[in-house]
Amino acid sequence: MDRYVVTLGRFILEQEREHPGATGALTNLLYDLTQAAKLIHREVSKAGLVDILGKTGKGNVHGEEVQKLDEYAHEVVFNAMDHGGNLCVMASEEEEGLLQIPEQFPTGDYVLLFDPLDGSSNIDANISIGTIFSIHKRCTEGRDGSLEDCLQPGHRQVAAGYVMYGSSTVLVYTTGSGVHGFTLDPSIGEFLLSHPEIRIPEPGKRIYSVNEGNFSTWSTGQQQLVEWFRGTGGNGGGGFSHRYVGSLVADFHRTLLYGGLFLYPADNRNPDGKLRLLYEASPLALICEQAGGRAIDGSREILAIEPESLHQRTPLYMGNREWVDLAERTLAGEGMAVGR
Ligand code: AHM
Ligand code: MG
Asked: Which residues surround ligand 2, an ion (CB under 5 A)?
């Protein structure tokens, strides 16, 4: 069996060969990101041991506070990506402003936006968490990239992906020609192709995924939508399962593999929802569409939104087209009629 495994390195190289004009920059970028993912995987998988190691004196001998994992992940990604000469600027969910490439390193044509450790409030409960990334080609000139390079609509992404640190660590990405998934084999430290050409199943499982604790803060249309899934609104529907991890990468990964609808709507306290357009919604929307699904903010395609600021939030509905279309119609007050 081992003779037939395809490593991530080999896979991205072979994909590059299919694009004769490719410079190799994107391949290098993806490769550097996988190195960061392996380091984060290592720290995440020993997170539960920190106290034990500390008590036996093997850990934090100087009494320094153990670094928070999301800050650690931010630094690991930045340090893995700052010197390759492929990027001109970065931005992270963990940092207010732009992250410029240090003076001593060359810059390149690409822009990286990332959420280093999404769902990090789940770490102590050993729940899956993830790293999300989005890559654009720069649209300005000069040595350093600028805000303008970061504020590009999602349809211009040249690559997007995520790493989920779960029961196993998986990396899923797209460069615009399909979605492919790799599983980390810790014994050899390599990501191996495990999910080629991922498509959201059609019809997918009837699953809706939302934080229902927010029900009373939603618009009427939003409440009707969830009542339709539950079958409790007197408007038909029902027969759905409800699944909500509360960790975006995990909820999305399930949606990608099983089908369904993931939603984080606006509510009366957060008119733009909770999730970030550039670091969360946009990269996952590209993957979702590449896998045959759809992603909207309620009325607009996520990938068509022109970003206005780095940390802007957006409501998000993504998954099987059928359910995203239903959400769109319901939110527009057009009734609940569906095909099945
Ligand atoms: P974070 O970026 O602070 O980690 O928050 C994002 C997380 C997502 O992973 C998840 O989808 C969402 O917050 C859950 O929010 P809630 O607890 O409101 O349901
Ligand atoms: Mg996040």
From this structure: 115, 118
Residues of the chain with pLDDT under 70: 1-3, 49-67, 335-340
b/e burial code for range 29-66 (CB count within 10 A of at least 16 → b): bbbbbbebbbbbbebbeeeeeeeeeeeeeebeeeeeee
Q: Which two tokens stand for residue 274?
A: 């909770």
pTM of the entire structure?
0.93
Ligand 1: residue whose CA is nearest its atom 16: 246
Question: Atom 11 in ligand 1: which residue has the minimum CA distance?
Answer: 248
CATH-assigned architecture of domain 207-331: 3-Layer(aba) Sandwich (3.40)
- Would the CATH topology of 8-195 be identical to that of 207-331? no
CA torsion angle 105 106 109 114 (round to 10): 0
Question: 139 alpha carbon to ligand 1 midpoint, in Å?
Answer: 31
Sequence spans of domains, the chain: 8-195, 207-331
209 lines ligand 1 (CB under 6 A): no
For the stretch 131-176, pLDDT in tens is 999 999 999 999 999 999 999 999 999 999 999 998 899 999 999 9
Tokens 């609808």 belong to which residue?
261
Superfamily of domain 8-195: Fructose-1,6-Bisphosphatase, subunit A, domain 1 (3.30.540.10)
